[in-house]
Structures are given as structure tokens and as C-alpha cells.
Amino acid sequence: MAQAMNATKSTDTEKLIAYFESQAEFDILKARKGYFRSWDHQLMQEAYPFTVKPKGQAKDKWDFLQFGTAVPRRTSPRADRDDQRTEHLQNVMQVFFLLEQVVNGLVLGATTC
């Protein structure tokens, strides 16, 4: 938030929203910076998948997780992936919206007969 206020020289809500919707990157104390995805305001950041180690493999009571490689991988082009996911999710949302309209039309039509 401080970075956004500094960059916009403002505390105006609309200016701050516009700043974050520009997908400006900021430090989130991980190996890579984070950003907010513009179309749904989801915080995009690397995550660390893990599995629980099989019984007997832990060195001590704190050594029970096996961590995988951070996702998304550094080698994957973020912009292309996000564009593809965005387009797919927007298409899915459009289908649900149309289905909702059809269902609402059927329900309203049935109640007026």
C-alpha cells in the first residue's frame, strides 16, 4: 500500500485501485515479486507445494514436509499464461451468466403461466 501511495502521490481510492490494476509488482518477501491481477484483483504470487513425508523419514518432529518447486515455475511466461487463463475464465463466466439468464427466464416464465 505504501508503494502504491508513493507511486500515485495520493491516498485516493480510485487512484490506488488503478495503480494495482496496472499489475504493478511489489515485494512480498518471497523470491519473486507479487502483483494483483487486473480483472479479478487476485493476488498473484509464487506458492510452495508440499507433501507429507512418509512415516519414518522425518529427522525430527519438525521435519515432516517435503517441499516441491515454487509454482509457477520461473521459466513459465507469466503474461501468456495469465492471458490464457483470463480468456478461459471469462468464457466460463460468460457461459454461467447465460445459463443463469436461461434458468431465470424459465423460472419466471413458469411462474407467470
Descriptive account of the structure:
With 113 residues, this protein is mostly helical. The protein folds into three domains: 1-45, no CATH class; 46-74, no CATH class; 77-113. 45% of the residues lie in helices and 9% in strands. The protein has helices at 2-8, 13-21, 78-112; strands spanning 35-36, 43-44, 50-52, 65-67. Strands 1-2 form a two-stranded antiparallel ribbon. Helix 1 (2-8) packs across helix 2. The protein is flat and about 60 Å long. The N and C termini lie far apart (55 Å). The mean pLDDT is 80.
Q: What is this structure's SSE topology?
A:
Blueprint (H helix, E strand, L loop, with lengths): L1 H7 L4 H9 L13 E2 L6 E2 L5 E3 L12 E3 L10 H35 L1
Helix pairs in contact: 1-2
Number of strands: 4
Number of domains: 3
Which sequence of SSEs, written as H and E, runs from N to C?
HHEEEEH
Structural class category: mainly alpha
Q: Over the alpha carbons, how many angstroms does the gyration radius reach?
A: 22 Å
End-to-end separation: 55 Å
What can be said about this structure in brief?
45% of the residues lie in helices and 9% in strands.
List the keywords:
two-stranded antiparallel ribbon; 3 domains; flat; 113 residues; mainly alpha
